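Researcher: Sequence recovery benchmark, item below. Answer with residues only.
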């Protein structure tokens, strides 16, 4: 079919069908917000009566993305975790991305606990998300794992919005953010 015999506007329609819309699914934590929340938690611990005279500290290693809580005993360690988690929630840091390790005895008869901060979507959870999207029976929706994030693409913007809705309704153990939307 030549340009002269093609109906008016059909090339625009064909181009629209070939265009793929996509968005990225990530799971990131703002490290500056974590640091701000921990500073607030340290101030609260310094002023609380039940922590007066006790050894309670919160350390944050940004390079390794982990927190270290130290307290006199497990009871105070749990109270310290409650303070930290409350401050993180108030600063909109997803607590789902924190993994608490076991409480371990430390020096000077204290208890220590490491908390890992998950940056990005782990591979096994990314596979679960891809499997979930494929099982949802949405037509022509592709999901691709790209490092620690997912790229969801489809020819239809409506299908992409349905995928976002389905992912928000399902719990995968990490907080999901949607961005880099291209339509």
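Model:
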């Amino acid at each position: 079919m030549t340009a002269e015999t093609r109906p008016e506007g059909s090339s625009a329609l064909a181009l629209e069908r070939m265009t793929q819309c996509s968005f990225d699914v990530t799971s990131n934590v703002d490290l500056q917000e974590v640091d701000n929340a921990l500073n607030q938690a340290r101030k609260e611990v310094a002023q609380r009566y039940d922590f007066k005279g006790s050894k309670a500290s919160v350390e944050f290693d940004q390079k390794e993305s982990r927190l270290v809580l130290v307290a006199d005993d497990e009871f105070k360690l749990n109270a310290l975790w409650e303070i930290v988690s409350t401050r993180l929630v108030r600063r909109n840091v997803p607590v789902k991305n924190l993994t608490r390790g076991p409480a371990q005895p430390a020096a000077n008869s204290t208890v220590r606990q490491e908390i890992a901060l998950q940056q990005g979507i782990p591979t096994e959870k990314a596979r679960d998300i891809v499997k979930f999207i494929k099982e949802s029976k949405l037509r022509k929706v592709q999901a691709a794992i790209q490092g620690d994030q997912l790229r969801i693409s489809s020819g239809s913007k409506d299908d992409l919005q349905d995928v976002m809705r389905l992912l928000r309704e399902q719990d995968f153990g990490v907080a999901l953010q949607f961005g880099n939307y291209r339509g």
